[in-house]
Each structure stands twice: as C-alpha cells, then as structure tokens.
Amino acid sequence: MNNNEDTLSVVSSSYPRSLKSGLNGSPTMASGRYPTSDAASFSTSMGRFDTCILGRQIVEPQKRHTLYKIEVDGGFKKWVIYRRYRDFILLNKKEGERQERERLRQEWVEMQEKIKKEDIEITYSYWDGSGHRRKLIMKKGNSIQQFLQKCLEQLRKDFTELKPVTTEQVMYVKEDLIIPQHYTFYDFIVNKARGKSGPLFNFDVHEDIRLTNDATIEKDESHAGKVCLRTWYERNKHIFPASRWEPYDPEKKWSKYTISEKK
Predict the structure, then answer these.
(1) What is the pLDDT, as a whole number, of residue 38?
(2) Domain that holds residue 83
(3) pTM of the entire predicted model
C-alpha cells in the first residue's frame, strides 16, 4: 500500500488497512445489492478528500469475494484503493463510535467550563510575621496570579508597603507549599491535591488545628493560605513557619499530613 493509502487508513473516516490494494485488471460492474457507484467526502488533518466507487472486481485466491475499486481525490493527487464490502460496514460502525466519543468528550468539556465559572470563597492571610486574615470571591477557573492581583488591590488600603508591589513580588503558600502562579483553583479541586499539612482543594477555613491523620482518610480541615512578600520569605525562610515551606511539586505525594519539622 502506498503512503497515501496508509495516511487515509488511520483516520476515523477511512477504510481498514488490512486489505491488499493495487490489484490489476479492469473492474467489472454488476447488479445486485452491493453498491456499484457512490461518492463521499470527508475531511482529515491533511485536508479534504473526495471518494468515488468506480466499480468492483471478483477475486478468487482462496475464497471468492468482491473488491470495490475506489478513487480517492485529495485535491493535490488522485489514487485508487480496493476494499471489500464488509469494510464499508466496519467503517460505518467505527464512524458511529467516533461520533459518540466526540459527543461525550464535548459534554465533559462543557461541564468543566461550567465548573470553572462557579464562585468560590477564598480565605487567606497576609503574612508579615503575623497573620492578617481576609476573604475574596473568585472563580474556580481563576489563576493564582489573578488571585494575588485581587489580594494586592484589597490589601493596599491597609498596608502601604504593598502599593508599589506587583504579583511577581508576592507568593501564595497553601498547606506549606509555595504554589506557582500559573495554576488555577480548578486544578487543585479537580485533582483533589494534597499539601504537607492539609488538602489543597479546600479554600474555606476551619480553626487552625492541624491533624496528623492518615491522608487516605479524607479530612476537610484546611488552613488559610498565606500571601507574603518574596523578600520577607528570603529573610525568614530559616524560621518557622517559612522553614517548612517548599515549592509545590505535582509529582510528589503526601501520604500523611504533618505540622512538625520531622520528615
């Protein structure tokens, strides 16, 4: 089979590649229930293809069967392939399955987009050595950077040192993990992510009681995330609680929630 035929056979609208092509001889037209002439068009990542059944040919290598001669027109080139009637049936079945998968995928995407637009209340604490608790309403699909921008807007009226500060100069720490600003709240919610000292997917706050329970038994105790200046962190990262903070790594799994310095 030539390269064009291989390319055609891997797309959902194609015919199976299991059958041999390039048979010699002229097609013989015949009457009966089998298709003798038909045309179809479909699109692939390579472009649009037009197909036309030119005829059929009886073949008897071991068991008598009919091959249909099909012309494929890719616009830039035409070529001929041969397929059995059962391959049309298989193609129709595969196309139906593909359409159903696409429908389910689209439903899932729409559901996730709806979740991302839902409101979520975030309790956080501006941390400068002591906590100054605040609340914000965000969308679940908002990024940490968008959240920090809202935090700065809210805090500047009470903390003058934050007036010239940008989001690049502050950091968000949740459950003793420094969260990169490109993540969204949705990312942690949908993945049920865990931190060192509590769940990353809860943003409402209980009293600051950190339990050392087995994380396989889900607990909803969470702690106010901390918003602090990077300069403050660099000066104090050898002192608790900053000494426990570390960058968030999605590949690292926390089997237990802890609050002590012991590993």
Answers:
(1) 55
(2) 66-116
(3) 0.59
